[in-house]
């Protein structure tokens, strides 16, 4: 080619001009399509979650009762007295302590029973699938049905528990498990009081919730490589050592997630305690206290304030877990 030849104009670099406009148009169309797909879910979340939360916050700062509900406007008489009544009432702190004890012990019991059941049904045997299906019965059965069964079973007059307890276990008299605040127990020459009704509802919560933990832990156990246990067995590790050093580290992330989920649900639990004891005999948790403030005393503002405090405490506890414990589980 000679030096006087005319060169063709250079092609525009890729990604400029029309191609760039086409990409912007395609991205905008994808964004509109994504927004259209999530809009039904967004509407449901706003209506079912966001609006009730904002409404509860609004009610918590109003002097509102059932008697003046009809005449009160959207923004009624502003007050901080609802929170003063909540924090200044000894019954609230008692209910909060009961809620913490119920949540911690109920969560630990459910996970403990679920872990024991998962380990017991880990090895194949005839009818294992049927037994595993039976394990789910407490969790899937209607709450009204199971609370009625427990109430009948624990009845001090005609319940089967007291019948066999007085006949076989040597009880001096029937025990009112659901209506007796405390009972004296003698152990090694020491006599101390036991919160009978509270321990009963905790046992019910652990029994009803353990299938949830059982499902998660069973699935995790099936994913544990068999070579790890085989190597530990060859090295002479006992059954307890294999569980402690091989299985438990594999299960800890799942147990941590279960603990958070079960604690949240148990902390907000209402139906089982209300159906079993009605919140009496030392079993009134904050959720039952909110219900009683709303229905028995007709104090809407105070009930909303208690619910808001309950949500704030739960948010703080979950935040502490995510801040302190969750990173450790991820590193392990």
Computed CA radius of gyration, to the nearest angstrom: 29 Å
Q: Biggest sheet, in brief?
A: 2 strands, antiparallel
SSE string, helix = H, strand = E?
HHHHHHHEEHHHHHH
* Number of alpha- plus pi-helical segments: 13
Sum this structure up briefly.
This protein is mainly alpha-helical and 332 residues long. The chain has helices spanning 18-60, 81-88, 90-120, 128-135, 137-140, 143-153, 160-168, 196-222, 226-234, 239-267, 271-276, 286-295, 300-331, and strands spanning 183-187, 190-194. Helix 3 packs parallel to helix 8 (196-222).
Layout of helices and strands:
Layout: H1 18-60, H2 81-88, H3 90-120, H4 128-135, H5 137-140, H6 143-153, H7 160-168, E1 183-187, E2 190-194, H8 196-222, H9 226-234, H10 239-267, H11 271-276, H12 286-295, H13 300-331
Antiparallel strand pairs: 1-2
Write up this protein.
This protein has 332 residues and is mainly alpha-helical. The termini are far apart. It is flat, with a radius of gyration of 29 Å. A two-stranded antiparallel ribbon has the order 1-2. It has 13 helices and 2 strands, in the order H-H-H-H-H-H-H-E-E-H-H-H-H-H-H. Helix 3 runs antiparallel to helix 10, helix 8 crosses helix 10 and helix 10 packs antiparallel against helix 13. A hairpin with a 2-residue loop joins strand 1 and strand 2.
């Amino acid at each position: 080619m000679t030096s006087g030849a005319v060169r063709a104009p250079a092609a525009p670099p890729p990604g400029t001009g029309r191609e760039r406009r086409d990409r912007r148009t395609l991205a905008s169309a994808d964004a509109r399509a994504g927004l259209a797909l999530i809009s039904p879910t967004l509407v449901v979340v706003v209506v079912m979650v966001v609006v009730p939360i904002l409404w509860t916050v609004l009610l918590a700062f109003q002097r509102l009762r059932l008697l003046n509900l009809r005449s009160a406007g959207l923004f009624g008489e502003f007050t901080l007295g609802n929170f003063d009544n909540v924090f200044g009432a000894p019954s609230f702190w008692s209910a909060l302590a009961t809620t913490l004890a119920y949540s911690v012990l109920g969560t630990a019991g459910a996970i403990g029973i679920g872990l024991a059941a998962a380990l017991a049904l880990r090895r194949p045997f005839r009818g294992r699938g049927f037994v595993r299906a039976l394990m789910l019965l407490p969790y899937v059965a209607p709450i009204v049905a199971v609370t009625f069964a427990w109430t009948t079973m624990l009845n001090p007059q005609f319940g089967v528990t007291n019948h066999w307890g007085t006949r076989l276990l040597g009880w001096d008299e029937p025990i009112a498990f659901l209506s007796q605040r405390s009972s004296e127990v003698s152990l090694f020459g020491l006599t101390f009081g036991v919160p009978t009704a509270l321990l009963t509802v905790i046992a019910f919560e652990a029994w009803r919730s353990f299938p949830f933990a059982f499902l998660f832990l069973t699935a995790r156990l099936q994913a544990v490589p068999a070579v790890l246990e085989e190597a530990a067995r060859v090295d002479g590790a006992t059954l307890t050592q294999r569980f402690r050093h091989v299985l438990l580290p594999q299960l800890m992330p799942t147990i941590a997630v279960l603990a958070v989920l079960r604690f949240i649900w148990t902390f907000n639990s209402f139906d089982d305690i209300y159906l079993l004891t009605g919140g009496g005999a030392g079993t009134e948790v904050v959720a039952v206290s909110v219900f009683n403030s709303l229905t028995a005393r007709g104090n809407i503002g105070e009930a909303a304030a208690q619910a808001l405090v309950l949500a704030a405490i739960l948010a703080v506890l979950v935040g502490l877990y995510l801040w302190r414990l969750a990173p450790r589980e991820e590193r392990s």
